[in-house]
Amino acid sequence: MRTPAQQLQRHLSDQVGRVVLGADGVIAGLCLALVARGHVLLQGVPGLGKTLLAKALAGELGGRFKRIQCTADLMPSDMTGIHVYHEQKQRFVLMPGPLFADVVLVDEINRTGPKTQSALLEAMEEASVTIDRNTYPLSERFFVIATQNPHEFEGTYPLPESQLDRFLLRLDMGYPPRDMEEQVLRRYDLPGGGHGGVERAVAPLPDGLLEAARRQVAQVHVADAVYRYVADIGIASRSHPQVSLGLSTRGVLSLMRCARVQAALQGEPYVTPDAVKAVAPAVMAHRLMLAPDAALDGVDGGALVTELLGQIPVPRS
Fold this sequence. Notes:
The chain is α/β, with parallel strands linked by helices and 317 residues long.
C-alpha cells in the first residue's frame, strides 16, 4: 500500500507526465519541492516544454497560474504590482502583479537585471511583497518555477548568490529520448501547439493529499548521526579549495528538508545517508560558488558535489 507521499508522486507522474513527455526526473523533483514547500530553478535551452510543465502543475494544484517573461527592461513593479489612484474611492488601491498567483513561472529569469531579480527575494523567502512601504501576503500555495538559460547564452545575467540560495532545487531539463520526442511530434504537431486548456487536461490532486504527504514527512525520524552528517557536508563545502562560497545555513537546511521528503517518497520511516546523497546534487550544485581558477578550468558543480560526498565519512548507525 502506498503512503500519501508516494500517492502524490504517482499522481503527479501520471497526470503531468501525460502532458510533458520524457521529463520524469524533473516531475519527480517538482514533487519533492512541492512537499518541502520550496521553489525550483529549471535550467535548459528554450523550447523543451518548461511553460507547459508549469501550466500542468498549476492545473494539478487547482490554482491561478501567471507567467512573467523576463527581459532586460523588466521592472520590479512588473512583478509585484503598483498602486493606482481610484477615482470613485478617492484613494490609491493596489493593482496586484503576477506574483499574487499560486504558481508563477518566471521565464528566462537570467535575462533580466539584478534589480528586477531582487524583487523575488522577499516573495520567495517570506511569501509576501512590500510595495510603497505596505506589505502584502501572497498565496499560501505560492510556488515559483523559474527557468534559466545556460550562462554562455547571449544577453544573460548570472543570478546573484542570494537569489540562487532561495531556490530549493535546480533541475536540469534536457532533450527527451528519441521515442518520447516522436510522441511529442504526434501529439502536438497540430496548429496551436497544444498549450490551450492544459490546466483542464490534468486531474487535480485529490483533496487533502498534499497536506497528508507533508504530515507524513513531518513524522520521518532523523537520527543525531544524520544531522551531524548533513552539517559536516555544509562545513566541507565551505573549506574546499575549489569553492569560494559554500553552503549557507539555509542551504544545509534545504538539504535536510529534501532528504526527509526523499525518505518519505521511498516509504522509509527514517532518513538515511543514501537519501541525503540522492538529493544533494539538485540541492547543492547551484549554491556552490566556484573559485576563479576552478571556473576557468571548467569544473562542474555536480561533479564537485560528488567529490565532497566522497570525502565525508558516512554514519553507519
